[in-house]
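[job 0412] stage=complex_fold ligand=pyridoxal-5'-phosphate status=START
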Amino acid sequence: MSAFDEYVASFGSGAGYLNWAAFGPISPVVRAESVWALDQLAQADPAEHAPVFARATQATDTIADLLGAASDEVVLQASSTHGLAQALYGLSGTVIASTAEFPSVSLTLERAAQASRGALTPRWITPADGRVTTDAVAEVLTDDVAAVVVSHVDFRTGYRADLTALRELLGPDRLLLVDAVQSFGVVDVDWTVCDVVAGHGYKWLRAGRGTGFARYSEQARARIRPVLSGIAGTTSNGLFVDELPAPAASARAFTVSQPDHLAAVRLAAGAAEIRDAGVAAVEARIADRIDRLIALADEHGIPVASPREPERRAGIVSLAPEDTDGLSAALTDAGVAATARGGAVRVAAHAGTDDATIDLFGAALGKFISG
Ligand SMILES: Cc1ncc(COP(=O)(O)O)c(C=O)c1O
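[job 0412] stage=complex_fold status=DONE, emitting structure tokens
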């Protein structure tokens, strides 16, 4: 069996689960690693703790590998929102963001602006369909813009922003800050065009909560003040007393305290699994699953609000019938897990989404249409 086939097989049956954009059920490998780590940490013996503690470095290294970044540019965070907060609270100037973003972007930017006493100013855009296209950004791009913060894949519409085109538009001097929650590990993209990438492991990496991470490029570290830097983020490698060391030059400056080692174990396992399976292969399999979900929606005349071009989408399909409550109820009755919100029903497929799940989805759409 190839590593990819093993990866797909690890999803088991779980027919009907199309809610990967909300939460990814924990993978068998991540579960086994968690049990191992708990047993290790339950021993009253530092030698048993050491291999668990070492997983924090392993997690950071694997995430860095997947991002094409140096390990010292990547740090573990409690959540992706923590990673974004570290960046946004330290920024000054004008920052472009969409009002339709997940609040980890929009609310964090607003709070950071409020705390900045006028140093940071959001420039809100409300693009058509909530899609942060390069044209939508170009329309409001002026000399005073310091950064753009955007979700790589929008949590509602499933729209995948063109990061390379955004980088070209911004030029080398402005920062590109990216929320990678709905794409990291499942979209094979050049992350090095971004200055900050924040993500987490509890959806597509199947690693549970507490598994946030973020990368801060050299340019990001030069331009973002580590205002939320804490005791783990200094130039000192150990405990310090009677001195107050400066923030580290590496991304460690953007950390507060030591990582949650049990979360790091899970993230290390989930990230290694997807790296070994191959992100490009995972992306291709998801694209195939999404093609089939879209084809079924078309067959039943249900409007698809998300992009159809594979390069502008990832694992999310947004369905927008007039009766979203009815569709949501039909899916629930058929045993299909999805998310209904804001006049649309979101379904999300992963590489392990099997034919039985797609058939259930099709049958539920048929029932919904036939009333
Ligand atoms: C695009 C996006 N960003 C951020 C988050 C929140 O991430 P966290 O819980 O790691 O802060 C979510 C959660 O659904 C999301 O979809």
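Residues 39 and 45 are 11 Å apart (CA to CA).
[job 0412] exit 0
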